[in-house]
Specification:
Order of helices and strands: EEEHHHH
Organism: Pyrodinium bahamense
Structural class: mainly alpha
Number of strands: 3
Domain PH: 1-59
Helix content: 40-55%
Distance between the termini: 78 Å
Protein name: PH domain-containing protein
Region (Disordered): 120-139
InterPro entries: PH_domain
């Protein structure tokens, strides 16, 4: 099976739960949820080098996994947030949507009032070379007792 007697074996480092030292300073034991692997180095120094390399790489891999998980979480939150913003923008394309958002409603009502005032004042005077100034329009001020907010509900 490749795991005994010098054969080739591998262990995904993200699955490494712990590394145990043995009585024999040349042995190194890697423990995962599913298996335990024993490695024998030529010397205690070589075993320590392996230990350092494995610990360093396993830490980097686990850190990468944590960062990827954080990135996925942030991306999911951003998708949710942008979906909500898009729905709001689509809603603002209809009068009912504008009236539901307080800030948009206030801007819309202000626009209606200003537009009504501009129409009530009549068209801008035409230049003199066109034959003079036209008669003022027969528009009045906003009707007394009528609230624009009441009209829009």
């Amino acid at each position: 099976d490749g795991s005994v007697g010098g054969g080739m074996a591998f262990l995904p480092l993200r699955e490494c739960e712990r590394i145990l030292e043995c009585e024999d300073k040349r042995l190194l034991q890697l423990v995962t949820k599913e298996t335990t692997m024993m490695f024998r180095a030529r010397s205690g120094h070589e075993r320590n080098s392996w230990l350092f390399a494995v610990v360093k790489q396993a830490a980097l891999i686990k850190e990468r996994d944590i960062l990827l998980q954080a990135e996925r979480t942030i991306a999911a939150m951003e998708v949710k947030k942008s979906t909500q913003q898009l729905a709001l923008l689509e809603e603002l394309g209809r009068l009912s949507g504008v009236l539901r958002v307080q800030e948009a409603k206030e801007m819309f009502l202000d626009f209606i009032r200003r537009d009504h005032e501009a129409v009530a004042q009549g068209p801008a005077p035409e230049p003199e070379h066109n034959g003079g100034v036209p008669e003022p329009a027969a528009f009045s001020a906003w009707p007394e007792g009528v609230s624009l907010e009441d009209l829009l509900g």
